[in-house]
Amino acid sequence: MFFLIQKDEMERDRVQNAIILDLLHRYRFDHEYAFMSISDFYEDEEDLFGQNLHLKKAEEFDSRYKEAIPIGNVGFVRRFLQVFKGVELENAIEVPPVLRTDEFLKRRYSIVPVWDIPRSGSFFIKDATEQKVFSYKGDLERFLYDEVFEAKSSEYDTSFRLNYDHLYQVSEIVPILAEYRVYVLQRELNSISQFAGNPLIFPDTDLITRAVALLNKQPDSPRSYSLDIMVTPRGTAITEVHNFMSLGLYSVDWDDALLYAFKDGIDYIARYNTEQTEFSNFDTFQFR
Length: 288
Description:
12 strands, D-amino Acid Aminotransferase, Chain A, domain 1, 3 domains, 5-stranded antiparallel β-sheet, alpha+beta
């Protein structure tokens, strides 16, 4: 396989890039790679700081790039998908529909359009259509002031606005005792890594096994992905699921399967890139 490694990220995340480069060196007879920056996708570097961005056409790059596997942050991968795959947006997965049950959520959880977002109360909120746009936890009355519901005043308006074409996660805030990331590579549970909270509080591995089994049965499920898990006073719950693109690595022990997982991530977007769907259990959830 041929990989495109984001050059801009080399200094920011040295450990993760060292893992990737070590694997590419270890399996150098199977894989090739090249470095690339986000600015390389644009006609002119000045476009990066302007309002009207002009992406290059796929034909302007080395022919190998079209079938390459990109490894980098969300912005880098998004530009790759736009130029080489004609995909404008990688849809966020959040908690997929098959896992939106009280057993796996253990909290009030909803994915709703802008007009159904509550204007007050203490909640966690984030964009559930596009990744890494924003998230907020606290009193919505302090965050959702009137202007964020209004259209931008001009093309040069860079202030935060809610997108009426997007869906948003609004969920109950629960105390988090510990957080883990579960890595599933080629539909096999590969590792569970703790990344926040008390490392002596362990998740319910039976629940994780059931969640992975259910997700693997879905026809549009990614072949490789992660589940973010939180341990709360109510038990173990699923925070969200990520396709294997622009994914943080909280473990250092990997083999060639990791490189193929990034390929699975691109394949998922090309084949499915499932759109977000509305959901709410606010009227039905009961903690048992």
